[in-house]
Every structure is written in structure tokens, then in C-alpha cells.
Design a protein that fits this description.
- With 129 residues, the protein is an alpha+beta fold.
- Helix content is 29%, strand content 27%.
- It is built from four helices and six strands, in the order E-H-H-E-H-E-H-E-E-E.
- Strand 5 and strand 6 form a beta hairpin.
- It is globular.
- It starts with 14 loop residues before the first strand and ends with a strand.
Length: 129
């Protein structure tokens, strides 16, 4: 994935849009590391297809172990499930299994002032450090 030069972040907030294809070949821990490394650098990470519920739980767990008052304040995370025809079968819906087809926004807790979600919109007000 191309990297922005270090001076670029002074003029704004970097947003990393990560495709489902990029995440597809990674293990759960590789996904978590990719996300947390981006967020620790002050970037907003947007996942095209989101994480499985177990991966989201693990992301939160790993984040909690890495929080430090002077370096890393944690993350804000919001997920927007895709609507419409589901690729998930009726059995999966009855059993309560969630599809990973969703948009997920993750960012540094100290930079996201407002993160709002309604049925059609995820909105974030992001400040520079």
C-alpha cells in the first residue's frame, strides 16, 4: 500500500481506505496489526468489508493492552452494515451470524470529536493533533 510522506499529515488527516481484497489474504492478527498501525500514526482507517465479530472483539482487546496516556489513547470504531439483498442464507440469519459485508470506520480516540451513525450515514468530525 503506498504510504504518504511524513510531512503530508501536517496539512490534514490521512484516510486509509482498505479494500476487501487487501484484507482477504491476511490472518486476523495481521488485519488487527494493519489497522492499529495506521490508527497509531493518526490515520482514519476505513475498511470496505469490515471485520468478523470475533476479529472486532480481538481488535478491541489488543487496543486495550496498547493504550498508554502519553502515546496512544485508543480507538473509536463504528460499523455500517450493508443493506439490501443478503449473500447470507436464511439459516445464517436465523442463527444470528453476521455477514462481514459492512463498512467500518476506525480512528484515534483523541482525534475523533464526533462519530455519528444513522441508517444511511457515518459522519466523523476529525481534528488534527
Amino acid at each position: 500500500m503506498p504510504e504518504a510522506t511524513p510531512g503530508d499529515s501536517r496539512n490534514g488527516v490521512q484516510i486509509d481506505l482498505i479494500s476487501g481484497a487487501r484484507m482477504e489474504g491476511l490472518t486476523s492478527m495481521e488485519k488487527i496489526r494493519l489497522i492499529l498501525d495506521g490508527v497509531r500514526e493518526g490515520n482514519i482507517v476505513v475498511l470496505e468489508e469490515g471485520l468478523a465479530p470475533e476479529e472486532e472483539s480481538k481488535l478491541i482487546e489488543v487496543t486495550m493492552t496498547e493504550i498508554s496516556p502519553d502515546e496512544f489513547n485508543g480507538i473509536e470504531i463504528e460499523t455500517y452494515p450493508q443493506s439490501g439483498g443478503s449473500s447470507q442464507g436464511i439459516l445464517g440469519r436465523i442463527m444470528g451470524k453476521e455477514s462481514t459485508k459492512k463498512l467500518t470506520v476506525i480512528g484515534p480516540a483523541n482525534q475523533i470529536e464526533t462519530l455519528h451513525k444513522d441508517e444511511n450515514l457515518i459522519s466523523a468530525l476529525v481534528s488534527r493533533k
